[in-house]
Amino acid sequence: MKHRSSSTLYSVAKAAMEGHRLVVVMSLLVLLTCGSCSAQLRKGFYSKTCPNLEKSVRSAVSRKFQQTFVTAPATLRLFFHDCFVRGCDASVILGHKNAEKDHPDDVSLAGDGFDTVVKAKAAVDSDPQCRNKVSCADILALATRDVVNLAGGPFYEVELGRRDGRISTIASVQRRLPQPFHNLNQLNSLFSMHGLSQTDLIALSGAHTIGFSHCNRFSNRIYNFSPRSRIDPSLNLQYAFQLRNMCPLKVDPRIAINMDPVTPQKFDNQYFKNLQNGMGLFTSDQVLFTDNRSKATVNLFASSEAAFNSAFVSAITKLGRVHVKTGNDGEIRVDCTRIN
């Protein structure tokens, strides 16, 4: 019996070691795969196959931007939501039933973002040399750069070469996106999953300088924060009362509020100055200033727009590399809203 027990224990130990080796090998393969994917992205990817690509996208995005400023925050938010769920593969644009866009965290995505990509895709495909050669994922990445720049933000080169994903499910969105009530630990955890640092997190949060939200996303901060305080004490009191005026109880849920009440239609560093004054709309905004681990970076970006712009370009470039599909992976959709 002792011999059989020892043999059994040996077998179990050996199996465990083999299992551990398998996990390590698989982990390395994932890392190598992700690394090779991002390495295949490059500037000028379509220089020979579609040389007028960026001009075509810019023209379409500019027309849309001139029609409505909502184009800017809507497109930028669409890019973020796409990359954070299944990687930057335009899966958020797919329109079948129970797709990503049907999740509660995505239903508030403004139609102007989707429409911007569709119009830019049509403009690109109107050039016979480019037709069906450029992915919707790359068009979204370019459109995002263009709306940031058109709104007064920096211009930057976009790495290209992504292919479009074929899968989009409502379940894949669950617990993938930052929430307005998140603290710094929760935010850092989500961002680090995609290789993004705390500085990247703060810089990308600066996109809220042109964002908007609905009253129900922050109503607890102005009406029912805690048993001791109806208003979140980290909120500037005057700002809290302004929010109450704009968002009375039982307000129409479609009412949208600018996240930057000072320069809502300019991509600048005002967002960080607002945080210094207790005017962050979400808990997840204001915590960047109230938490000492991130406060110094907020102060830096508030004092230097150049520092913010530089950090934002670095962060959004890194975001654009998250779990991309390249080479023979994925496809180039003929219609951005459905798989081929």
Can you characterise this structure?
- With 340 residues, the protein is an all-alpha fold.
- It folds into two domains: 53-173, Peroxidase, domain 1; 184-319, Peroxidase, domain 2 (Orthogonal Bundle), CATH 1.10.420.10.
- The chain has 13 helices and two strands, in the order H-H-H-H-H-H-H-E-H-H-E-H-H-H-H.
- The protein has helices spanning 2-40, 53-67, 71-86, 111-125, 136-150, 184-192, 198-205, 219-223, 237-246, 270-276, 283-290, 292-303, 305-319, and strands spanning 212-214, 256-258.
- It has a two-stranded antiparallel ribbon with strand order 1-2.
- Helix 2 (53-67) packs across helix 5 (136-150).
- It is globular and about 65 Å long.
- The termini are far apart.
- Enter the CATH topology name of the largest domain: Peroxidase, domain 2
Shape: globular
Kindly state the mean pLDDT as a whole number?
90
Class by alpha and beta content: mainly alpha
Main pleated sheet: 2 strands, antiparallel
Count all strands and give the number.
2
Q: Termini, distance in Å?
A: 62 Å
Fold blueprint:
Layout (H helix, E strand, L loop, with lengths): L1 H39 L12 H15 L3 H16 L24 H15 L10 H15 L33 H9 L5 H8 L6 E3 L4 H5 L13 H10 L9 E3 L11 H7 L6 H8 L1 H12 L1 H15 L21
Antiparallel strand pairs: 1-2
Helix pairs in contact: 2-4, 2-5, 3-4, 3-5, 4-5, 7-12, 7-13, 10-12, 11-12, 12-13
Q: Which terms summarize this structure?
A:
340 residues, mainly alpha, Peroxidase, domain 1, 2 domains, two-stranded antiparallel sheet
